[in-house]
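User: I'm curious whether this sequence folds into something compact or stays loose and floppy. Could you predict its structure so I can see for myself?
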Amino acid sequence: MLELNLKSGRNEISFKSQGYKLAAHLYAPEGFNADGTEFAVVAQVVAQNHHHRLFA
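Assistant: Here's the prediction. I'll summarize afterward.
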């Protein structure tokens, strides 16, 4: 499990998945719930000069 100490604003995160290191900026709004029950994730994947947006 990935453990993060998040703060409001931009958070730099990185982790490994299937041997690849992934890095991202995770933005949290002011007053967000740090236990994670109010989060939505929007990801942009850049691979071989193609951009894909994923929404969860």
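Summary: The chain is about 0% helix and 55% strand. The mean pLDDT is 73.
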